[in-house]
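Ticket opened by: R.M.
Priority: normal
Category: complex prediction / small molecule

The reporter submitted a protein together with L2XQQQDX and asked that the result be attached to this ticket for the collaborator who will pick it up next week. Submitted input follows.
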Amino acid sequence: MTTTDIRRIEEAYQQAKELYAKIGIDTEKVLETLERIRISIHCWQGDDVRGFENADGELTGGIQTTGNHPGRARNADELRADLEKALSLIPGTHKVNLHAIYAETAGEKVDRNQLKPHHFQNWVEWAKKHGLGLDFNPTCFSHEFSDEGLTLSHPKKEIREFWVEHCKASRRIGEYFGKELGIPCVTNIWVPDGFKDITIDKLGPRKRLQESLDTIFEEKLDENYNVDAVESKLFGIGSESYVVGSHEFYMGYSLKNNKVLCLDVGHFHPTETVSNKISSMALFLDKLLLHVSRPVRWDSDHVVIMDDELMEIARELVVNDLFDKTYIALDFFDASINRIAAWVIGTRNTIKALMRAMLEPTNTLKEAELSGDFTTRLALLEEIKSYPFGAVWDYYCLKKNVPVREAWLQEVKAYEKEVLLDRDHARGEEEGEPACSL
Ligand SMILES: C[C@H](O)[C@H](O)[C@@H](O)C(=O)CO
Ligand SMILES: [Mn+2]
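Result attached by the on-call engineer:
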């Protein structure tokens, strides 16, 4: 970037700063707030939710990754290298969200109910080196004991107990992350339990899930280290007719047991929006977890784009001052594009949306609404869309030493050529397939 480019970015920011000041927005304060927000970036976009336990195994649990873009990470070192590349292109300092299947057991066969903190020691050392926080998830899918589509609600006690022990082990790993890094770890439980077709006994599985969760949470852990979250879902592939852990189930469970409720943007009917649920949930719960995603026709886990729902979610957090009550995590997995680009696009958009919402004249809008002046409310909402938020974003990227605008893409393309394609070439040699060409 030339000195002229830098000067132009700084000049454009100064003009934007003056314009926003006229409507009562302090852009410096907005950027100070923005840089304190840690987004929880999901590791599983980097390898198509495969993990290290059985990387060539099937992804089950009613979730699906589509596409076959070359260069998927094949092991921990490659996954961490790809995450580092993505993080170098994203402004701010964040968290990385892990799943239990990303344990490093040095080739030892360790079943999920036997996982221990030391199986994640490399991740902790890596996170310390990069100033990152870590979040965690028990993996209750892609395992022989989840093949029937039931885990914590399974009618067989021994299968329920296996998953209960796995979730207990996961909370202790989360506690280890929190203690080692000084940043609370959110340990989020999602189970794929449900049925494909008409279900007669809908209460029984929910009672078993409730009992399993109660047992899992019996061990009291310091919330300065580990924060428990539970994630609801509407349906998955193979659980189209009935999901045990529905929104109503987990709304009730989290309220009754003071747990964090995870709202995934893809886990509701297409006509429902998570943005519309946030203020109600925030009224009754201490904390919320968001899985920011983009459903296309179903819980497709598309890469997050700057769409109306993302802006609405950001506005809810700003208007209701919910940053301190909300953990913001990402959840998408697209294998049809470069996976580092997916992380960069989705994370930059999420941060940008939060910034855009903070650049809106919230107090003026609230006053207009309260006084019944809906004309001003709508007019301002529409006019603010053409205010120069891009100049503020460019300046933020410049100040955080990450590429401005699309300049990050050439870095990703170079990384793909120098690093990612070799992986497929190597894989091709192993499997006798031709290396992918772009
Ligand atoms: C991999 C995650 O645990 C998973 O995506 C879960 O959060 C979910 O949203 C399932 O649909
Ligand atoms: Mn999710």
